[in-house]
Structure formats: C-alpha cells, structure tokens
UniProtKB/TrEMBL annotation, chain A:
One of its GO terms (cellular component) is cytosol. The keyword Amino-acid biosynthesis applies. Pathway: Amino-acid biosynthesis; L-tryptophan biosynthesis; L-tryptophan from chorismate: step 5/5. Keywords: Amino-acid biosynthesis, Aromatic amino acid biosynthesis, Lyase, Tryptophan biosynthesis. It comes from Endozoicomonas montiporae. CDD domains: Tryptophan_synthase_alpha. InterPro entries: Aldolase_TIM, RibuloseP-bd_barrel, Trp_synthase_alpha_AS, Trp_synthase_suA. PROSITE patterns: TRP_SYNTHASE_ALPHA. This is Tryptophan synthase alpha chain. The active site is at residues 48, 59. The keyword Chloroplast does not apply. It comes from the Bacteria.
TrEMBL record, chain B:
Its EC number is 4.2.1.20. The lineage of its organism: Bacteria, Pseudomonadati, Pseudomonadota, Gammaproteobacteria, Oceanospirillales. Residues 70-394 form the Tryptophan synthase beta chain-like PALP domain. It catalyses: (1S,2R)-1-C-(indol-3-yl)glycerol 3-phosphate + L-serine = D-glyceraldehyde 3-phosphate + L-tryptophan + H2O. Residues 1-24 are annotated as: Disordered. The beta subunit is responsible for the synthesis of L-tryptophan from indole and L-serine. Pfam families: PALP. The keyword Amino-acid biosynthesis applies. This is Tryptophan synthase beta chain. CDD domains: Trp-synth_B (cd06446). Tetramer of two alpha and two beta chains. Keywords: Amino-acid biosynthesis, Aromatic amino acid biosynthesis, Lyase, Pyridoxal phosphate, Tryptophan biosynthesis.
Length: 267, 419
C-alpha cells in the first residue's frame, strides 16, 4: 500500500500542503500511540516517528534528549514497530515514516527490519546517516515491501548529488532548510523558496521542508514554498516538559499542530 | 634522515592500497553521515587529495615535524627491561618525547596546515584524555586561530591539568554534558558544531576514526612514526623488527607505526586494546574482543553496542583508550589477518607503567602502558636476537594523579602527599 503517494495525491487535488509533525517513539513513555492519534486529529497528514539512538549526532539538544529519554524508558526498535501496529488498528490511512540512525537497523539486519516494518504498517524510512551512495542494499530490502526511502537534501548538496539522491529516494524529498542540527536558528523563507524550486527541476516527487519551523507563521510561510511542512523541535520541546506537567504538555502539542494547520490552510 | 624516509614514501606503497575511493577498507570505513555534513567532508577530501601529493605541502609538513614537533623521535633500546623479560630485545619508539608529549601532535600539525591552506579561521576538536586537545590548542595558538575543544564533562573533571593547559594556550574548552559525557559525546558535539558553521571551521579529529577521509588522512599524517622506526631499526639492528606492538584507542598511534610495515609480511603486528576490569566484567574497551560490527560516528567498524544497536559505554583506567568504536583500518587488518588484536587489563597496564618507570627511567602514558603490558607477555616467548618495536605513544605526566589515586594518595599541592 502506497499511503505516502496517496496522501500527497489527495492533498494536491485539494490544493493543500502536508503538515508532517515529528515525535520520538517512547517519549513520553507509554503515550506514543495516543499522541500519534492526537497529531492526526489536529491536522497531521503524515507522521514522522523517530526511533531512538544513543548517539543522534545530526540532532540538536532538544531532539537528542528525546532520544535519550526514550532509551531510558527502554524503548527498542521492536517496540517502535509495535507502536506502529497499534496505531494502525485505528488509523489505516495516515502514512508513518520512521526516522533514525543506521546502527540499530544494521544490528537488526536489513531484511528483518524491512519485514517487520512492512508488517507493522510503516510507509517510509529516513535513515539519517545512510547516504544514497551506500544505500543500495537497504533499498533492495525495503522497496519490494512498498516502503519508501526518504532522503535529505541540504542547502549545500551539489546538483550531482541531488540527482543521485532523487534516483534512490521515493515518496518525498526532505529538504533541510538550515545548516546545522535540528532546532537551530532562524530560517530564510525566500532562500528556501528558491532552493525548493531548484530541487524540483530534478524530480516530480513532493518536496517537504523541515528544520526551524516553530509556529503557525513560519509553517504558513514555508507552505508557500514546499509541498510539506515538517516540524519537530517545536513539538518535542513541549514533550520534554512531561515530567513536570504530564498530560498538559501533550495537549499543547496538539494545539501547536492545529495552530499550524489553520495558519497553513488560511494563508 | 634520507629523503626516502620522508612523507612522500607512502605514495609508493606497492601492494597494500587502502582505502578505496569511497573510503572503505574492505567492508569497513566509508562515510556514513547525514547529508548536512557531506559537503564539508567532500571539501576536506578534495583539499587533502590535492595537498598530500604537493611537494610544497610535504616540505612544510616535514619542516614542522622536524622543528616544531622535534622529529625524528628516538628509537630506544630498553636493555634492562629486555634482560628482565628474558626474551626479545625491546625497542621503544619515543613519541613521548614529541612536543606536547604524545604522538597526537603529528596529525594536529598536518591538519592545521590543511586548515591554514583552506583559509579556515576557526579550529575545533574533541578530546578524551586531553592530549589531542592540547596538541590542537598548541597548533591553533601557533597559527593564531580561534580554538574550541569539546570534552566530556567527566573527562574535564578527570583531566584538570590538561584542561588548564588548553586554557593557557588560548583555547575554549566546552564541557559536554550529553550522553555518557565522555569522548564519544565530545565527538558528537564537535560534529554538531562543524555542521552549523562549516565555512569558517576546520575540525581537527584526534584519531583514525570518523567519516572518510579522516581515517586515511590521520593515518597518513601519523605514518612518519613507522617510516622512522623502520629506518632506525635497520640502522640499529641490521634488520626489520620481528614484531610491532601499539595500544589502540581510536587507533592513530598504532596505524602510524603499522602502516609502513603492512607489506612486510614477516613483521608480526599486535594492537592492544583496553581490557579494563576484564572482558567478563563488561567494563572494558576491547571492541575487537567481541564480534559486533556496525556503524557509529560516520564509519563501519567493530564497536561496542547492545542487541538493539545502542552504543554501550566503554571503560578503561586510561581515558585515551576509553572509546566504544575503533578505526576502520584496524577492523580491516583484523579481518584479513594481517594484525592481531589483544588486550591488557587496568592492572596489567599499571604494573607495566611501574616496571618501565623503575627499569628504564621512562614514565609512559597509561595508554602506552597497555602496549607495554602485552610486550611483557610477548617478549619471553621470543628469542634473544628477535626485536620488538613498541610505540611509546605518550608520556605519563598527565596520569600521575590517576596512579596516585590508585595508590591511595591525594596530590593537592597544599598538603603535599597524603597517604
Ligand atoms: C598517549 C596516548 N596514546 C594513545 C592514545 C589513544 O589514541 P590512538 O589509539 O588514536 O593512538 C591517546 C589518546 O588520547 C594518548 O593520549
């Protein structure tokens, strides 16, 4: 089932842009599936679900800490698959993209990973530290299961690499709008717009933009340039307050998402 | 030294040609990084490729090694130790006599030359024991470049002396409080810094680990150790050594010694990892003692992780060997059977530290003491006319507090020795 393609096709015909929230599986403990449904209720079109790693080097402090919290709750890759399966019991439409680092996937084995991901109802995988030139073996396992390989493109990716990346990737392209790790500094909307237009010369795939989107205003601005708005740090920093505030912080994540949804739809 | 022994020699290697164009040593190595880091690594690789073949660069590097580092370092025949062990003759490659007290300065000087050539204004580095941080702060001071050193908060505490040395040299030391607060987390932070400010920043990595081209580049800068040792050994003994021994943290001093000898099949090669409190205890850094391979900090190699692929914390009395990953070329040399990897425990290393200090008047770094501990086992199994060259990668001054603490003494300057 190609949920990602279906979702982007639907959105395109409705002239809407996708809102893609990111949360880390297992942060807070035990609430992930509930949280995923809450994201969808508030307007998420695709869910990005981080699978935790001890050394999330491409992530800034907010998301890195979420990985470590999830690990301190004992969350394993198998647990993440169980969460997706459970989510699928009540939602068979919303695409789920797993995002994480290579070593847990290597240790499980590509074939087993692909098998379990497919069974659980995963639609795409973004392995942050698996560059396209070394991804053949992995893609060979997930593609036949109908799972998309999502890849990153950055402000400094050369045209030659953009071509390579577009030949390996499917589903959508994830444009990282800022230099740096997740959660850094401010973004430059017109620069993003130019870059997305440039990337689109190389592919028909939808282009999502992530890193640096914080609120309704920035989400609405980015949605003019991109097919999808990806938001992580702004949500995860709310979830970080779970220990002090409990459920309240989860509700706030929901309202942040719906604020972005409204701003994007009413721009 | 004759011209032949200078840096160019590596270009002429005949049979052993690693890594390949993608930075792989067999299945190991590579460049497993997020796209955000790729262009910075490509730029570094291109500059390195160009300069390593450039005679002006080579001349600059050789001059710095001679006049700033103090090379060649002596090869010293440890006669009393050899006699006591009753077997092979033991020769120490004296990297402890380099400026700043360890082999780390060799690759720091090389990388600083690259940084200067690339017009970078800001140097960053990670450090565990502090030796690489000191070496980096030193070359940055010499070039007048801003220098930021990331160091695990636990190591900042353990290595107060080196932290202060770096500060005196003008570096900013940033304690890293994420994760296990040790070397691996310092590397993570340095990589994060680099991604955020790639234009003005050069990351001087401290060992033969990380994404391509670091393992190859750092090895090449360190390979002067083996080239000198080969020539010195021939001059002093009339032949090649029978065995090489070096400690392996990330593996830079070891690759530096081994590389020149890889094609000399009769020379046995031993890398010594940190056995910590013993392999059974789980408290160690003997990556090669297990059979876990995976991808960590940009490279595929042997590593320490759990069944779910999460990197596990290593342990060693010596901060410089306390790292859950190991350079990919070592994994390759193990896989093709060219080198053998063994380990020495904390206790064995401490005994070797005391032995060398008492027998030869040379106080080795605790890292190097691991290599010496294995030499104590190996030498008696060899004949008296056989030769072992062991890399004395650094001097022990930085470890005196650690050893004193183990002896139950506190050295706090105010009250002197309290037993
Ligand atoms: C004296 C000394 N030897 C060895 C090492 C270990 O590093 P490597 O394995 O890269 O030589 C260190 C690291 O700090 C060191 O200071």
């Amino acid at each position: 089932m190609m949920r990602i393609k279906q979702r982007f096709d639907q959105l395109r015909s409705a002239s809407r842009k996708a809102l893609v929230p990111y949360i880390t599986a297992g942060d807070p403990a035990g609430n992930t599936v509930e949280m995923m449904h809450e994201l969808v209720r508030n307007g998420a079109d695709v869910i990005e679900l981080g699978f935790p790693f001890s050394d999330p080097v491409a992530d800034g402090p907010v998301i890195a800490k979420a990985h470590l919290r999830a690990l301190s709750h004992g969350v394993t890759l198998n647990d993440v698959f169980s969460m997706v399966s459970l989510f699928r019991e009540n939602d068979n439409e919303t695409p789920v993209v797993l995002m994480g680092y290579l070593n847990p996937v290597e240790i499980m084995g590509y074939e087993v990973f692909a098998e379990k991901a497919s069974k659980a109802g995963v639609d795409g995988v973004l392995v942050v530290d698996l560059p396209p030139e070394f991804a053949d073996d992995f893609v060979a396992q997930i593609k036949p299961k109908g799972i998309d390989m999502i890849n990153l493109i950055t402000p400094t990716t050369s045209d030659e690499r953009i071509k390579t990346i577009c030949s390996v990737a499917s589903g959508f392209i994830y444009y990282v709008s800022l230099k740096g790790v997740t959660g850094s500094a401010k973004l430059d909307i017109s620069g993003v717009q130019q870059r997305v237009t440039h990337i689109k010369q190389f592919t028909d795939m939808p282009v999502g933009v992530g890193f640096g989107i914080r609120d309704g205003e920035s989400a609405a601005a980015i949605s003019q340039a991109a097919d999808a708005v990806i938001v992580g740090t702004a949500l995860v920093s709310e979830l970080a307050k779970f220990d002090q505030e409990g459920e309240a912080c989860m509700q706030r994540v929901g309202s942040r998402v719906s604020e972005m949804r409204n701003a994007m739809d009413n721009r | 030294m004759s011209d032949q022994s200078k840096s160019q020699k590596t270009l002429d290697k005949e049979t052993y040609q690693q890594p390949d164009n993608s930075g792989h040593f067999g299945q190991f190595g590579g460049r497993y990084v997020a796209e955000t880091l790729t262009s910075a690594l490509q730029e570094l690789e291109a500059t390195y490729r160009e300069l390593w073949r450039d005679s002006t660069f080579q001349a600059d590097f050789d001059r710095d090694l001679a006049h700033f580092v103090g090379r060649p370092s002596p090869l010293y025949h440890a006669e009393r130790l050899s006699e006591k062990l009753g077997g092979a003759q033991i020769y120490l490659k004296r990297e402890d006599l380099n400026h700043t007290g360890a082999h780390k300065i060799n690759h720091a000087v090389g990388q600083a030359l690259l940084a200067k050539h690339m017009g970078k204004t800001r140097i960053i580095a990670e450090t565990g024991a502090g030796q690489h941080g000191v070496a980096t702060a030193t070359v940055a001071a010499r070039l007048g470049l801003e220098c930021v050193v990331y160091m695990g908060a636990k190591d900042v505490e353990r290595q107060a002396l080196n932290v202060y040395r770096m500060k005196l040299l003008g570096a900013t030391v940033i304690p890293v409080t994420s994760g296990s607060q040790t070397l691996k987390d310092a590397i993570n932070e340095a990589l994060r810094d680099w991604v955020a400010r790639p234009e003005e920043t050069f990351y001087i990595l401290g060992t033969v680990c990380g994404p391509h081209p670091y393992p190859e580049m750092v090895r090449d800068f360190q390979s002067i150790i083996g080239r000198e040792a080969k020539q010195q050994c021939q001059e002093m003994t009339g032949k090649l050594p029978d065995a090489l021994v070096a400690c392996v943290g990330g593996g830079s001093n070891a690759m530096g010694l081994f590389y020149e000898f890889i094609d000399d099949q009769d020379v046995k090669i031993y890398g010594v990892e940190a056995g910590g409190l013993g392999i059974e205890s789980g408290e160690h850094a003997a990556r090669m003692a297990g059979d876990r391979k995976g991808v960590f900090q940009g490279q595929r190699s042997f590593l320490m992780c759990d069944d779910d692929g999460q990197i596990t914390e290593s342990y060693s009395v010596s901060a410089g060997l306390d790292y859950p990953g190991v350079g990919p070329e070592h994994s390759y040399l193990r896989e093709i059977g060219r080198a053998e990897y063994v380990y020495a425990t904390d206790d064995e290393a401490l005994a070797a530290f005391r032995n060398l200090t008492r027998m030869e008047g040379i106080m080795p770094a605790l890292e190097s003491s691991h290599a010496l501990a294995y030499v104590e086992k190996l030498a008696p199994t060899l004949e008296k006319d056989q030769v072992i060259v062991v890399n004395l990668s650094g001097r022990g001054d930085k470890d005196i507090h650690t050893v004193a603490a183990i002896d139950g003494l506190a050295l706090d300057g105010k009250s002197g020795l309290q037993g």
